[in-house]
Amino acid sequence: MFPPLAYLQWIEGRPAAAEHDLGSSDLRRLPAGDPDDPVPPRLRGRSAPEYDRSLRERVAAEYGVDEANVLLTAGATHGGFLASATAAALARERDGGRDGDAAASASFHAGGADGPRPWALVEEPGYEPLVETPRGIGSRVARFRRPGPAYDLDPERVAAAAADLAGPLAHVTVTNRHNPTGALTDRATLAATAEVAADRGGFLLVDEVYAPYTVGADGEGRSDETAAIGGAFGGPTGAGLPATVTVGSLTKFHGLGGLRVGWITGPQAFVERARLVEHHVPALAAPSVALARRFFAHRDDLVGDAREHCRRNHELLAAFLDGRDDLAGSVEPGSPFAYLEHERVDGDAVSEAAWDAGMLVVPGRFFGLDDGVRVSLGRAPDDCAAALEAFGRVLDGL
Question: What is d(CA 291, CA 89) in angstroms, rounded to the nearest whole number?
Fold first, then answer.
């Protein structure tokens, strides 16, 4: 049911082996440190919370939603799996017209007397697991285009694709920022897309792990302020919109991937059903919860540091593209990653030449874009500056 994920197989071990890393997109500036120390470097030496506020309360406050709208997960991948599986289960139950736990269990199985399998409608180009995970749980997958060069999310395109589906719609899946281009979608567009999904009985699933990648101030980021502008950690969010489920984590913007702490937000009934799906898979570990609470105790300082890291890397990447006549593409405002195409060779040729020179650059074919590469500046700005200089030499030799 679950095929190998080509991108994850390809990138395994490469960030550690590369002399220059322009492939990793999480904002990491400190070395890993002692592998036996369970406290990540960014949290080392920082005090635990002085008062008792749960991690779920903290996440709910950040997104301006009720605790009942939040489910903690073991990272964003776990969250995406639970969201997709829950939407599929609800679609089967809705299509079968059954009530009760026994009927819910039966309706989760594919085909046969339970009716047609539900559909997942996923953006293209896009991140491979967002396509393969729904297939792995038994959903059918269709795609809708986010056309270049802007790669904007267009609710009308989503509606046209949804109209062609013969069977129940479980969810429409998008990323924000868009992976791999960095295009950012505003809350109004997310709301219009969610309405399209709801009209077919489904949900909008928004992977928001890159949404906080912004360079402006975030109003100190507290719950009332971010809720007022529809944002979290300084970036846009679909949290709280009708028929909308969001996925977030401490991995990318916050640079705390080792904790494997994530969450989903969604309507209360969706979250309650997701808790039942969670019984089938491992859950978030208590030590990670404790360390995540430590992050929130120092939230403003750590988010401010990450925002400065993001700003400097964005400026480096934008300046690099401006100085290259042989590259086409766009570095979206505030984004430290972008999809770029070389004027003479395709993405595989660029990536292979870079790897031969000790540099990690991700070929666009893993996202459905064969002509270019995704260039991501996640490491410390000084390291990224050196990596871009080396990448320029690779491009000069093509």
Answer: 32
Distance CA 106, CA 165 (A): 23
Backbone torsion region of residue 174, taken as left when φ is above 0, otherwise alpha when ψ lies between -120 and 50, otherwise beta: beta
Half-sphere exposure of 332 (CA within 13 A, CB side): 26
pLDDT per residue over 305-356, tens digit each? 999 999 999 999 999 999 999 999 999 999 999 999 999 999 999 999 999 9
Same domain, 93 and 241: yes
| Residue linked to tokens 């776990």 | 78
* Residues linked to residue 376 through DSSP beta bridges, in sequence order: 337
Per-residue pLDDT, averaged over 59-81, amounts to: 97
- Type of residue at 139: S
Distance CA 23, CA 267 (A): 35
Residue of 153, 150, 147 whose CA lies nearest to 172: 153
At residue 294, what are phi and psi to the nearest 5 degrees? -65, -40
Q: Which two tokens stand for residue 67?
A: 């605790």
| Of the residues 298, 330, 361, the one at which a domain ends | 298
pLDDT digits (tens, 9 = 90+) for 237-266: 999 999 999 999 999 999 999 999 999 999
User: What does the pLDDT look like over 95-107, one tens digit per residue?
Assistant: 765 444 444 444 4
Q: Tell me which of 298, 322, 341 is where a domain ends.
A: 298
Residue 19, domain extent = 6-33+301-396
Length of the chain (residues): 398
Distance CA 195, CA 159 (A): 9
Distance CA 40, CA 59 (A): 20
220: left (phi over 0), alpha (psi -120 to 50) or beta: left
CA–CA distance, 333 with 12 (Å, rounded to integer): 29
